[in-house]
Design a protein that fits this description.
- The complex is a heterodimer of chains A (238) and B (293).
- Chain A is of the alpha/beta class and 238 residues long.
- Chain A has 11 helices and 10 strands.
- Chain A has a domain at 85-155.
- Chain A has helices at residues 44-51, 74-80, 97-104, 108-112, 114-124, 126-130, 141-153, 171-186, 198-202, 222-227, 229-236, and strands spanning 6-15, 18-28, 33-37, 57-64, 67-68, 82-85, 159-163, 190-195, 207-212, 215-220.
- In chain A, the strands form 2 sheets. Chain A has a 6-stranded mixed sheet, sandwiched between helices. Chain A has a 4-stranded antiparallel sheet with strand order 2-1-4-5, covered by helices on one side.
- The mean pLDDT of chain A is 92.
- Chain B has helices spanning 2-33, 40-57, 65-89, 94-117, 141-163, 165-175, 177-182, 187-212, 221-234, 239-259, 265-279; strands at 131-134, 137-140.
- In chain B, β1 and β2 form a beta hairpin.
- Chain B has a domain at 21-219.
- In chain B, strands 1-2 form a two-stranded antiparallel ribbon.
- Classes of the chains: A alpha/beta (238), B mainly alpha (293).
- At the A-B interface, α2 and α3 of A face α6 and α7 of B.
């Protein structure tokens, strides 16, 4: 068996003088959906920002595809195939859907194949093709989420890190987005999925980590989590 | 009476096209870096002198002054980012420090120009003599030249920002800096490019403005103040809004100068900006929240 695609070992990170992550270890194997659950403000987004290089690692190590990447710049990490789809989408508001997607293929390698990649994204999200010329700020919440996902796929992604894909969406739309995410798994992408709401990920994630106060307090499969009433009620209020 | 008004509006358009060049440069920097470059007026002044030096000192044909000035000042802009603004941006309170440092740089540059060139006003060699009359309006060839240069530069700039890969990256960085980084766009590269372009535009506007007035060590200061008014008027960081505002301010300045006198031009503009900011805090063309490129 080959090594997992992404390996975090004792990752510490934070902002200025506040340490948010206190030694997080986890692995994302190729083609699997790994989920990180936890209440707001306990380091889930910080974890993704640290992996993508927006935040400096303060301790521990991060390996991707066998290489240590924790000193790399953001653009090098994106170039290696780690794509971070940030919380709240952060689409480029004054640009059209198509311009947003093309920016996803900004790096030279992806830029060369952006035509083919655009077709691929339009196949996965036909709605984006319909909205191609529309300015992103006028999209609905669900469409914006699709655009953020599609924009991430425009690069040569191997690992998708998705931060709270259900945030602020109606249940029906959330269901649609999760159908998309399961579709991406079938396409062969490895996915690191961050959520606050455990019900969302139970049927999608292969393995679940619970984060509380910046460290992993529980991990196991979805079935194990469902059976474990005390963990659910202690950490997730479910 | 009417012909005086038409003449005034026409001079306002010429002035507005120069203001548009200098204000777009200023708003570009604010849009992408979120800092105000108080050396923008000094860059205009330096650009005007570079053109003067090219013709008077190196003896090249006068028309070369404009492109040479653009290129030289672009390099100055690169150096300014690499040596001063870039290192400051990484530290806490970077925005405030850049604000102070650039105004200091402007003072140094102006004093240096005074030392080297003296206080005497110099004519801009990049100029054309002669004029003709049309519909009771006197049109000088220099005005036509200004409109052509400014128009071409603004159109090229617009094309660059909307269609090229680097231009898109500049707009992306201005609209959503974190997301731009996550696309693999390097902030430091974008900021360097923006400072270079902005300084180049400052040089063009400095050459053009001095061609209807004169070159002097501190002649960039007042235009820079007007530029700030224009940028705020149009919504800081908003390029289209800045363009409209430049022409509104240019025409207002001409009309006020005609009917009230030149000395009232700046006070009237400041009065206008105060009124606009009371009723539309994001500027006349600004949208509610932050408007970016």
């Amino acid at each position: 068996m080959s090594a997992p695609l992404l390996v975090l070992d004792g990752v510490c990170s934070g902002y200025d003088d506040t340490m948010v992550l206190q030694g997080v270890s986890l692995e994302v194997p190729e083609g699997k959906v790994i989920s990180v659950l936890g209440p707001n403000g306990h380091g889930k987004s910080t974890l993704l920002r640290t992996i993508s290089g927006l935040l400096r690692l303060r301790g521990g190590s991060i390996h991707f595809d066998g290489q240590q990447i924790d000193r790399w710049r953001v653009d090098q990490i994106v170039g290696a195939g780690i794509v971070h789809i940030p919380q709240g989408d952060l689409v480029f508001p004054q640009m059209t859907v198509k311009e947003n997607l093309y920016l996803g293929a900004y790096l030279a390698d992806a830029h060369k194949r952006r035509g083919a990649q655009l077709e691929h994204v339009y196949r996965l999200f036909p709605r984006l093709k319909e909205r191609e010329g529309q300015v992103a700020s006028t999209l609905s919440g669900g469409e914006r989420r699709m655009l953020a996902l599609g924009r991430g796929l425009m690069s040569r992604a191997r690992l998708l890190m998705i931060d709270e894909p259900s945030l602020g969406l109606a249940p029906l739309i959330t269901e649609e987005i999760y159908d998309n995410i399961r579709g991406l798994k079938e396409e062969g992408y490895a996915i690191l999925l961050v959520e606050e709401n455990p019900e969302r990920v139970l049927e999608t994630a292969d393995h679940i980590h619970l984060i509380d106060h910046g460290s992993v307090v529980w991990q196991g499969s979805a079935r194990e989590l469902e059976a474990d009433d005390s963990t659910l009620s202690t950490y997730l209020g479910a | 009476m009417t012909s005086a008004l038409i003449q005034t509006i026409y001079s306002g358009l010429v002035l507005g096209s120069i203001y548009a060049l200098m204000s777009v440069g200023l708003t570009l920097v604010f849009g992408a870096l979120r800092v105000l470059n108080l050396a923008h007026g000094a860059l205009m002044m330096m650009g005007a002198y570079v053109s003067w030096l090219t013709a008077e000192w190196l003896g090249f044909p006068a028309f070369l002054g404009l492109p040479v000035s653009f290129l030289v000042m672009m390099l100055v802009g690169f150096a300014m980012y690499r040596l001063m603004i870039g290192p400051m941006m990484d530290k806490p309170n970077g925005e405030t420090n850049v604000f102070i440092a650039t105004s200091g740089l402007a003072l140094v540059a102006e004093s240096f120009a005074l030392l080297v060139f003296g206080p005497r006003n110099q004519p801009q060699p990049f100029a054309m003599g002669g004029s003709f009359h049309v519909l009771g309006v006197t049109v000088s060839y220099q005005d036509i030249l200004i409109l052509l240069v400014a128009g071409a530069a603004l159109i090229l700039m617009d094309r660059f920002l909307t269609h090229s890969r680097s231009g898109m990256a500049i707009r992306a960085t201005a609209q959503q800096p974190d997301a731009a980084q996550l696309m693999g766009i390097r902030h430091d590269h974008i900021f360097l490019l923006v400072l270079g372009l902005s300084s180049g535009l400052a040089a063009l506007s400095g050459v053009l403005l001095s061609s209807i007035y004169f070159i002097a060590p501190t002649f960039g200061f007042h235009p820079m103040m007007k530029s700030f008014i224009i940028c705020i008027f149009g919504g800081l960081g908003n390029i289209r809004g800045t363009l409209y505002a430049a022409f509104i301010i240019g025409i207002t300045e001409s009309v006020v100068s005609l009917y009230l006198g030149v000395r009232y031009a700046l006070p009237v503009m400041f009065g206008m900006i105060i009124i606009v900011l009371i009723f539309r805090p994001a500027g006349l063309f600004g949208q509610r929240e932050v408007v970016r490129l």
